[in-house]
Design goal:
Elements lengths: L9 H8 L6 E4 L6 H9 L4 E6 L2 H12 L5 E5 L5 H7 L5 E7 L4 H5 L25 H7 L2 H12 L4 H12 L7 H11 L2 H4 L7 H12 L1 H11 L4 E11 L2 H15 L18 E3 L9 H6 L7 E7 L5
Parallel strand pairs: 1-2, 1-4, 2-3, 4-5
Antiparallel strand pairs: 5-7, 6-7
Length: 313
Amino acid sequence: MENEHYSVLLEETISLLEPKEDGIYVDLTLGRGGTSSAILRLIKNGHLYSFDMDKEAIAKSKARLESVGKNFTIINSNFAYFVEELKKVGVTEVDGITADLGVSSPQFDEGERGFSYRFDSELDMRMDLDASLSAKNIVNTYSLEDLTRIFREYGEDQDSYRVAKRIVEYRAKKEIETTLELVDIIKSAKPAKVLAKKGHPAKQIFQALRIETNHELDNLKTLLEDFDKILKPGGVIAIISFHSLEDRLVKNRFRELTVIEGDRHALLPSLDEEAPYENLTKRAIRASDKELGENHRSTSALLRAIKKKGESK
């Protein structure tokens, strides 16, 4: 199976969502349409709303969805605004929500988008090509302190200061323009013992730049705060994350909604108070051995889901 069409943890996600034939569902990360297509096949009398910032992804996915059904709407928007965008089209309640927070395989594999440290291209990393901030802007304009901060917080790179300092020194002589130019700078800042380790030395710095460029964690926080406004009783939200920063946000928010913290006696007189959601994944679901054999990018995927208590209408 080609990576371009591989939807991570697809069977597990659909199993948790349990799409109803007449339900309203939201795929917050359309990508190349794998998850959206799977949902659309099951909701013959329902409707699917799929979101993506990437106009290229939308163009390539639309035909794929049309081959399955016509009962879908694609919205070109950041998922942080999905509640607002759905209200614009008259949707105030949905039966299920899903999001795959990973960068799609084509974005990594198409070198010109600047996401990958494996291809030489202009530094970009914008998921929304109309956005003003790019990775190139960041490495050439951010202060030493800000570069160090994002490398440390978003990349969890132990050499954050060394890399940031080397970037600032380099750009004083010449603007940093390409991905492999940046890779060389990163490598020059890393100790020999780190370069000798397994894994690419630029991975964490590139992750940090991508997160900063696209405001990924801020957008995820907004999504996690807002989805309850639109999810029906009995509805499910399922989210796939790919690194500890994302997973920690999802795990903590889902815990807030599924666990009543503290001394229950302090809840008097309402000792019967219940958490509003049920946890469907006591531990994050990981890819099966079969999937890992077909798609190495599933290795770091973590799927968590919760269900809103109450009877669905």
